[in-house]
Amino acid sequence: MPADFIKGAVLCSGMYDLVPVRLSARGNYVSFTDEMVDKLSAIRHIDKIRVPITLGYGTKETPEFQRQAHDFFAAVKAAGKPVELLVGQHYNHFEMGETFGNPFGLMGRAALAQIGAKLVPA
Hints:
By secondary structure, the protein is of the alpha/beta class. The protein has a domain at 9-15 and 48-114. 35% of the residues lie in helices and 13% in strands. The protein has five helices and three strands. Helix 3 links the parallel strand 2 (53-58) and strand 3. The model has no long low-confidence stretch (mean pLDDT 93).
């Protein structure tokens, strides 16, 4: 694949740092090693970001999902990378994902905007 194959990313309700997951009750059955946490935590690899990123989270998600979105957004922005943060008012974790399936939904619209698509209501 060419280095510029990926042109952008729309990320929703993510875990960008796996340390809190490792420290939570989930750590009892998800056995992350230090190496796994390092390799799989996007916040540790901001230097590799080469495309515009749109992040989204819902206001009815857990505080940890909201914190991770804010922290990742701030870190990407501080690194001088193009990033946008969208907030889904009154959406929970599962509803945020559903907005990808609608071109007028929060994340669906963001994905289409990234590729330059113009939406015309029916």
